[in-house]
Amino acid sequence: MTARRARGGVSAMSGAGSLATIENEIERAREEGNWKRVIQLAEQLRGRAQEGARPQFETLGSFLIGEAKLEDFLEEYPPKDKNISAAKDGLQGAQEHLMRTIGEEAKKLGVHLDSYILLGKLNYAMGNYTEALRYGKERDGSFVYSSHLSSAGFTRGLSWTLWRRNSFQPEV
User: Fold this and answer.
1) 124 and 155 in contact (C-beta within 8 Å)?
2) In 16-141, where do the E strands start and end?
3) 167 or 54, greater pLDDT
4) 171 domain-assigned
5) In this structure, is residue 172 part of a structural domain?
6) C-alpha to C-alpha distance for 125 and 105, rounded to whole angstroms
7) pLDDT tens digits, residue range 70-110?
8) Is 170 inside any structural domain?
9) Is-contact 111 9, C-beta < 8 A?
């Protein structure tokens, strides 16, 4: 994911030393895949928003929490057919957080496209393949699933799954 972009969102907003510390800790936790720590730090950011510091922290915190919950879940339950039912139950919290990060505030922070990518990944893990593809369509003139995702195998895996299941028709 684009850790630099989300981190840049914090940098642009941080003024106090403690915010810079949170920013650095978030960056380190994301790089290490320490998703539980990311959630703790993101909650601190959201707390700042509630204190009136900057409302952008609420959006950024939701993005980071959604990403962390998704990635933490997928480490234990990779996106495979046998894990679809677990994903439908276990990813509701991640989905709620990520759905909060596709609006105007997220666009200002530059995380809305990343949110679409994560929502596509989340829907893929839940077996909602048609919905996963919907998150890859053009949003505001930008094609969400870019070449770096193709190299990661996400779009190739999604295409293969749809072809294999012959489920190109939208679900009714």
Assistant:
1) no
2) none
3) 54
4) no
5) no
6) 27
7) 999 999 999 999 999 999 999 999 999 999 998 888 888 88
8) no
9) yes
End-to-end, the C-alpha distance of the chain in Å comes to: 32
What would the two tokens of residue 47 be?
A: 């707390």
**Domain interval for residue 158:** 3-165
Measured N-to-C along each axis, helices 3-13 and 56-76 cross at an angle, to the nearest 10 degrees, of: 150
55-85 in b/e form (b: 16+ CB < 10 A) is ebbbbbbbbbbbbbbbbbbbeebebeeebee
In angstroms, rounded to a whole number, what is the distance separating the alpha carbons of residues 140 and 19?
31
Average pLDDT over residues 136-142: 57
Whether residue 27 is contained in a domain is answered as yes
pLDDT value, residue 46: 85
122: its two tokens: 């989340």
Nearest to 19 by CA among 40, 48, 39, 43: 48
- Map residue 100 onto helix, strand or coil: coil
pLDDT > 90: percent of the chain: 42
Domain count of the fold of the chain: 1
